[in-house]
Amino acid sequence: EAGVAQSPRYKIIEKRQSVAFWCNPISGHATLYWYQQILGQGPKLLIQFQNNGVVDDSQLPKDRFSAERLKGVDSTLKIQPAKLEDSAVYLCASSLGFQSDTQYFGPGTRLTVL
Amino acid sequence: GIQVEQSPPDLILQEGANSTLRCNFSDSVNNLQWFHQNPWGQLINLFYIPSGTKQNGRLSATTVATERYSLLYISSSQTTDSGVYFCAVISNTGNQFYFGTGTSLTVIP
User: Is the pLDDT confidence value at A99 over 70?
Assistant: First the structure.
């Protein structure tokens, strides 16, 4: 069974530029999560989808971050415009069901904002 | 949101030693998972354990939900156990995962 795929693995941009990350969850997994992990900290949930609907986006900075999950499969997370403090690893995870299931993580995208 | 604290923050072990990692949480939970983040950043799920005890090889975990803590036991540690261990929870009154502060483990040969 293939795991959660993410791309790109690394991205370097200058502040005020825009960037997009892509995630392909495990086949059949209804729930998809995007996390931000700043160096030395635990992951922080940004947004959670159940199929193609948003379950929770309370910690997503909506003035600059957006995410979508068209057709309930792949998802993209966008930052526009980026700030220095957005430098972090962006992790995508998926689970079969909602809340009560094991989460499986992708390898992450390391973003550096200069 | 729910507070999740882990201890100790750092741990250095000689290969072959045993260890216990603790996760305290501030509210009742319906989901608790332990993860290992290896030195390359990959998060691997170790246990889904909102209550009770589970074992998988040299690892075992116990969650006492009524007292709001969980323990992860690592026996006969190996250098490949090095990395950061996180617990993550969903409270009964919420719908999002909160990760703990992590325990950084270094196993020395």
Answer: no
